[in-house]
Each structure stands twice: as C-alpha cells, then as structure tokens.
Amino acid sequence: MNKLLLSVLITGAALTGNSYAALSSELEGRLLLLEQRVKQAEARADKAEEKIQQRSHDDRTVNTAVADQQKTPTDTQVLTLAGFNNLKLYGDVELNMDGASRSGQLTSLKTSDDKHWKPGSHERWDINGRILIGLDGYTRHDNGFFSGFTVQPLANINGNMNVDDAAFFFGEEKNWQAKVGRFEAYDMFPLNQDTFVEYSGNTANDLYSDGYGYIYMMKEGRGRSNSGGSFNLSKNIGNWYLELNTLLEEGTALFVDKRYHGNDLVSNKNAVYLRPVVAWKKEAFSAAVAMESNVVKNAWRYENAQGEMSDPSRRHGYGLTLSWNGQATDPQDGVIASFSTAYLDAQDEQDFSIGANTLWRRFEIGYIYAHNNIEKFNSSSVIQDEGGVFDGAGKYSIHTVHTSYLFPDIMNMKNFNLYLGAYASLLNTADAGSDGDTRYGMRARFKYFF
Asked: pLDDT (tens digit, 9 = 90+) per residue, 203-243?
C-alpha cells in the first residue's frame, strides 16, 4: 500500500512539473510578444513626430513663399490683402414714411430721398429711402503718413442705384490731408438731428428751382455732385482747421430743369467752385467762416428777351456757423446747439439765410429764415405752376420751423433707431395783397446700422 501511494505521488509530481514548465514557457512567449508590440508602438510614435516636424517646416516654407510672392508676383494665384492694414465693411438702412401738404418742393430743399421725384400740386404720401453699403480702407505708415479710400453704393427702394461717397485720400495724420473724388466738404449750415427739411441726395445739384424760393446754405460748392468731382486740401494747426474744396462740374446741374429766372440755360463750359473754410474749435465750442465762388466766366448762359446772351454764372457766397456740443462730455443731458447764416450774391438775385437749432435729450427743434431778392425775371416764357409761388421779380421771405424726436434702441437693439420729424413753412411775398403760401409735412424714419 505504501509503495502504491509513493508511486502516485511521484507520478503527480512529474505531471505537475511538466505543467509548470509548459505554463512558464507560455508566459515567456507572451512577454516577448508584448515587448515586440511596445517596440512597434515606439517606432510608430517616432515616425508621427517626424511627420509633424516635416509639416511644420512645410508650413513655414509656404508662408515664406507667399510673402515672397507679395513682393514679386508670379503666375501662382494667391488671395491676399493689397497692403491695407485696416479694412471696414459697414452699412445702414434709411427708410422713410412721408406725408406732405404738397408733393412739390417747399423751397429749394428736397423733401424726398428720391432724386427723380418732381414737384407737383397734390398732397404726397409715400415710402422712400435707401440702403447703403460702405467699404473703407486705411493704411498707416511708420513715418506718420497714411492713405485710404471709401466707397458707398446706394440702393434706392425705387429701383435706382447710386453712390453716396467714392473717394481716395492721403496725407499726414493730425497735420494735412488731400482728398479727391465724390464726397461732402465742411458743413456750413448744420441742421442737427432734423429728418425732413434737410436736403437729401446730391448736395451740389438741383438746389435752385424757379418758383419755389431758395434757402441758401453754402452748398453749391460743397461737393457730392452727380456731374463732376472734387479735390479737397485740409490742414490742422492746433485748434485751427483749414480747408479748400475745389468742385468741377457741369454748372447747369445746380438748377432744376436747367432754368433760371424764367430762362433756359445753356452749358458753355464746366464750372469751377472754390470753397475755402477756416474753422476754430476748443472743447465744446466751434466756429467757422467760409466762402464759395464759381471762378469760370460764361460757364452757363441764356438768351434774354432782347436776344442778347447773358452770363448768370457769377455767384459768390459767404457763410458763418457757430456750434456748441455739450454731449461730447455729457451724453445724457448735454445740449447741442447751432447757429448759421449765409449770403449769396448772384446775377439779378441776392439770397440771405439764417438758422438756429438745438438738441436736448433726443428732442430737436429749429428755425430757418430765408430772404430772396429777385431783381429780374422773364415771365413771358413761364407757364404758371400751381405749386410755384415765387414766379416773378420781387422780394420773398420763407419762415420754416422743424422738429424731430429720436426713439433709440428699438426692440433693445442698439443699432436700430426711429426718428419722428415734422416741419411747417410760411412763404410770403412783399406784395400787400398776397397771402403767401403754407407748407407742412411729417416723416417717420427707420434707421438701422450694420
């Protein structure tokens, strides 16, 4: 029995030894396989790192090539910015809902954004306006000089396309600037927040209209003409600002229907308006004096009743404006106030205008007085216009009150405003038996910036 037990133990031990040897061999194989896999993973990681380093090197090479291409153009097409370090894309929507006592001009000021709108004798209720998209470019150089451009296409809701500003400028910052193209020069008759009486559109065109009086505002040589361009030089010297605007245009564009004092005008040569301005500003107060004059004789002519050719292109204007801007330091309760006066000495006509307005807490109110002295008028060829009042020689006066109120941040949107505006005018003649005429209108203007 003992021998049998001993044999069983010896046999079990032998089997156990064989099993342990087999298990040990299997574990050793698995460890070797794991070691190989770790080595393979390390090899793949090394290759990935090499690829990342190579890609970084390639990117630097491409950037260098693009920079070299900007210096020396090649046939390869690459989208780049043409040297401007400041580009700005912006725009605004300005849509009006109008109601007026007549669908004609109250005075020589347009009461509609539609430049093709014609005077008439009926009440006017319409919706007008435009959408502006602007692109400005500006480059500032290390030596203090700068250059840039601005372009502002307009899409009128009547289907017409126009341009507000299109200009190129250059100069030295806080010193001098030259500007050429289509734009407006210094405003010598600001109307503050007014929304309806102010002139909309080309400030140098269609300003004068027979039969409607003339509120002269120093705008004949200001610019933004659709029949010519401007060249402007300006310089800052401490608190002083100096400007000379030169407007070259087809001179009869100033007159609606190319008529002046009942005569048909004929363009002879382009007009050249010179408009120097001297302004001074310190803190909230500013003052400016200016003049404008067409320096080309016989720029436009007409044949008088005697069959003689007359030259009405001699026009000299003078202006003064004083302003106070309290909102610069107190946006909530500050007051903005303006006082302006202008005088025009033209052939067979003298015009004087004076205006004042003030703005406080989004409410604006203003008054404009204009006096026209027409010395000669060819009434023989004039068809009486029911909408016209000043249709002959004489002295005329125009009294206008205008007001507006701003509702800001419509629907809590800081770029969406609503303006409500209104005006009322009384037109008088020097004749004792004349009752004159009255005009009035209202406007709701939606203004959205983007």
From this structure: 688 888 887 778 899 999 999 998 899 999 999 999 999 99
pLDDT tens digits along 32-66: 776 677 677 677 766 666 665 665 555 554 444 44
pLDDT digits (tens, 9 = 90+) for 156-193: 998 889 899 999 999 999 899 999 999 999 999 998 88
Cα distances (angstroms) measured from residue 37 to each of 33, 34, 43, 46, 329? 6, 5, 10, 14, 74
Most confident of 73-77, 102-106, 364-368: 364-368
The β-bridge partners of 337 are 324, 358
Yes or no: say if 106 and 425 are a contact pair by the CB < 8 Å rule.
yes
> Which distant-in-sequence residues (6+ apart) come within 8 Å of 258 by Cβ?
252, 264, 265, 267
| Contact in structure between 181 and 226 (CB atoms under 8 Å) | no
Long-range contacts of 132-136 (CB under 8 A, 24+ apart): 132/91, 132/92, 132/93, 132/94, 132/164, 133/89, 133/90, 133/91, 134/88, 134/89, 134/90, 134/91, 134/164, 134/165, 135/87, 135/88, 135/89, 136/86, 136/87, 136/88, 136/90
> Could you give the count of Cα atoms lying within 13 Å of 109 in the half-sphere of its Cβ?
23
Neighbour-count burial of 141, counting CB atoms closer than 10 A to its CB (0-12 exposed, 13-18 middle, 19+ buried): exposed
Sequence letter at residue 190: P
Whether 100 shows a pLDDT value over 70: the answer reads yes
Q: Which amino acid is at 346?
A: A
CA 361 to chain centre: 24
